Amino acid sequence: MRHPKLLAVLFLFVIFSAAAWAEEKQVTAQIAPDGVQRVEMIAGSYFFDPNRLVVKVNVPVEIKITKQAGLVPHDIIFKAPEAGIDVSEELGTDPRVIKFTPTKTGEYPFYCDKGLPFVKSHRERGMEGVLIVTP
């Protein structure tokens, strides 16, 4: 090996970059005076920010989500019909507001289901999160 220090530095860079990329960010929705829980999200190159949302059961939720500029299409899927949540929304650079009222506590995944054949889907690349419904 001609450059062991360079290889060590590159290795550490890759490890720390991967850890930062997969970082979890949790936000608890606040209930507004009108009784609605509101959260803002950004979707981008294979991420949702935040990727963990905490909301209360039986209280209406509004998620305002915007996709970062770019050519790659994204969507957001919440599939938990047993909890009153069934959302599939295409995302764009103009904000979209998603509305639902969770009827059951628990943890429910959300994700982007876009992707091309024979390559990892956006979800497999880390574009997913968890909706946590609390009492």
Describe this structure in words.
- The protein has 135 residues and is mainly β.
- Helix content is 13%, strand content 44%.
- It is built from one helix and eleven strands, in the order αβββββββββββ.
- The strands form two sheets. The chain has a six-stranded mixed beta sheet with strand order 1-5-11-10-7-8, with no helix packed on it. Strands 2, 3, 4, 6 and 9 form a five-stranded mixed beta sheet that branches.
- The longest helix is centred in the first third of the chain and has 18 residues.
Give the topology.
Elements: H1 4-21, E1 26-28, E2 30-31, E3 37-44, E4 47-49, E5 52-56, E6 61-67, E7 74-80, E8 85-91, E9 96-100, E10 106-111, E11 128-134
Biggest sheet overview: 6 strands, mixed
Given the structure, what is the number of helices? 1
Query: Gyration radius, to the nearest Å?
Result: 18 Å
Distance between the termini: 58 Å
Backbone shape: globular
Topology order in helix (H) and strand (E) letters: HEEEEEEEEEEE
Level of helix content? Answer: 10-25%
Mean pLDDT: 88
**Low-pLDDT stretches:** 8-21
Descriptive terms for the model:
135 residues, 6-stranded mixed β-sheet, mainly beta, 5-stranded mixed β-sheet, 1 helix, 11 strands
Compact description:
By secondary structure, the chain is mainly beta. Helix content is 13%, strand content 44%.
